[in-house]
Design a protein that fits this description.
Blueprint: H1 2-25, E1 41-44, E2 47-50, E3 55-61, E4 64-69, H2 75-84, E5 90-93, E6 98-101, H3 107-144, H4 150-183
Antiparallel strand pairs: 1-2, 3-4, 4-6, 5-6
Helix pairs in contact: 1-3, 1-4, 3-4
């Protein structure tokens, strides 16, 4: 029973960490990354399609993204989709490839982005704490229903707290790395 509670907590917490990491990938840094274009949806012959499914995306330089459409007829649609996504980028095309130059971030903008990332990290921490609360409630209910002993309850609560501390530490580490990346000039 106790192992099930801890295992369930760990699985859910790991999913929260993965979701947190995915959210942070979308946060802009001073460098170009293909993830910056994830929100771009292209009209591919009447079907709304993610950009990554209609073109190859590469980052040859720190401030440049190059998009090579698999179908040359899609160049115009891709340019429109990037502008429509309102990411603050101005795509330029030579008819074959699209180049997206990433403007340098001001210090003020960097601080705003760090603030947003900090909020995302706090939401992830809250998610982990909520999972801890749910596990603790389940453990206390198991004790009340005489499925576990008081010693087992205490051990389970302690173990879940240790796991919580480790997951929070992992979130903090991931955030600090991202913060450093954002503030890097």
């Amino acid at each position: 029973m106790i192992e099930e509670i801890k295992k369930s907590f760990q699985e859910k917490a790991k999913k929260s960490i993965v979701a947190f990491g995915d959210q942070l990938k979308k946060v802009r840094t001073g460098r170009a990354t293909a993830n910056l274009l994830d929100p771009v949806i292209v009209d591919y012959y009447g079907t709304a399609t993610p950009l990554a499914q209609v073109a190859s995306i590469s980052v040859p330089e720190a401030r440049l993204i190059v998009i090579q459409p698999w179908d040359k007829g899609m160049v115009r649609n891709i340019e429109k989709a990037i502008q429509k996504a309102e990411l603050g980028f101005n795509p330029a095309s030579d008819g074959n490839v699209i180049r997206v130059s990433i403007p340098a971030l001001t210090q003020e903008t960097r601080l705003e982005i760090v603030k947003d990332a900090k909020n995302i990290a706090e939401q992830a921490r809250i998610s982990i704490r909520n999972l801890r609360r749910d596990s603790n409630d389940f453990t206390k209910k198991a004790l009340k229903d005489h499925k576990i002993t008081e010693d087992q309850e205490k051990q389970c609560l302690d173990d879940v707290q240790k796991l919580t501390d480790n997951f929070i530490k992992e979130i903090n580490t991931i955030f600090e790395k991202k913060e450093k990346e954002i503030l890097e000039i």
